[in-house]
Design goal:
Elements (H helix, E strand, L loop, with lengths): L19 H4 L34 H5 L6 H10 L15 E2 L21 E2 H12 L3 H12 L7 H5 L19 H17 L8 E6 L8 E6 L2 H9 L6 H5 L11 H13 L37
Antiparallel strand pairs: 1-2, 3-4
Helix pairs in contact: 3-4, 4-7, 5-10, 7-8
């Protein structure tokens, strides 16, 4: 994503950037049963079925309750991980985090910092604070840095690709796992609360590659979640890329296609919704907002 997209995050630079020694702190023992590490791979449809206008449903993208901390931890332990020497797999990673204040309104709620928080807790808390599915954050970590399957020191620094534009070096003030995860969740909420930007619901020209000479074509973006993905990674796969999604050509950009493919492998269809369309839009998180909580009622006093 571009530096211009992150300049509004004035508090981001205050986030903790943990030293590598701290990053390797052991995770707390929760007493939960161990989960055997296995390849987590569900059937993946051919890339030609990718729909650039509807990559993921709002319901899937914004469902912050899709996985709780324990389920995220079990998932991390189930993924086959091969780390660089001296680097922990995400299931074993922990770091101290700092409190991030509530933004207000429908934006992110407070993230209360803690000592030695496991990656699963950081992901769960950031998801709830900003109303983003932990599945969205898990897929993003893999799409950007292969952090679940092949973690590296550099991968932890740049975990979600936040502050890492395609045409310049990453901004080091955004380095660090917690820094990256929280800021990505914050940014997705920012796109949702302020959707009037280049990539929005409607028909928009989207390029195939950072090199403008590779061309573009119009895409009818049909939901806010898909618009958010394009604001974060502003490219669509070309026909050549869809025909050969593992190799492509010199004009291939794989980011949003890989988001769709990884989600399919890990969680099933990203376009799925829990409720049928005749339910109220807010119950399906359309536009990124849940239904408002019912107002408390005052019980009637007998005889009045």
């Amino acid at each position: 994503m571009s530096i211009a997209e992150v300049v509004a995050r004035t508090t981001a630079a205050a986030l903790v950037v943990v030293s590598f020694a701290a990053c390797s702190a052991p995770a707390p023992d929760t007493g939960a049963p161990a989960v055997t590490r296995v390849d987590t791979t569900l059937p993946e449809p051919p890339a030609t079925q990718f729909d650039p206008g509807h990559i993921v449903s709002d319901d899937s993208f914004f469902d912050s309750g899709a996985m709780d901390e324990q389920q995220i931890q079990q998932f991390l332990e189930s993924v086959s991980c091969r780390a660089d020497e001296g680097v922990r797999c995400l299931a074993d990673y922990a770091q101290t985090t700092t409190t991030q204040p509530a933004v207000g309104g429908s934006h992110c709620a407070e993230y209360r910092g803690g000592v030695g928080e496991r990656a699963s807790r950081i992901i769960a808390k950031a998801a709830v604070a900003c109303g983003i599915s932990p599945r969205t954050l898990l897929v993003l970590l893999q799409k950007e840095q292969s952090l679940l399957t092949r973690p590296t020191v550099s991968g932890y620094e740049r975990a979600t690709g936040y502050g890492c534009p395609d045409t310049a070096d990453c901004d080091a003030k955004y380095f660090g796992f917690f820094n990256q995860v929280y800021n990505a969740a914050w940014q997705f909420r920012q796109y949702t609360e302020e959707p009037d930007r280049q990539y929005r619901v409607g028909t928009v020209a989207i390029g195939y590659h950072p090199d403008a000479a590779c061309g573009s074509s119009p895409v009818e973006i049909r939901n806010q979640a898909t618009a958010n993905l394009y604001n974060y990674t502003p490219y669509q796969p070309s026909d050549t890329t869809l025909a050969d999604p593992d190799t492509g050509d010199a004009c291939s950009a794989f980011g949003n296609l890989n988001f769709w493919r990884i989600w399919h492998r890990w969680f099933g269809d990203p376009e799925a919704e829990r409720l049928p369309p005749f339910f109220p839009p807010c119950s399906r998180l359309v536009g990124g907002h849940p239904c408002p909580a019912p107002s408390p009622t005052i019980p009637a006093v007998p005889g009045r």
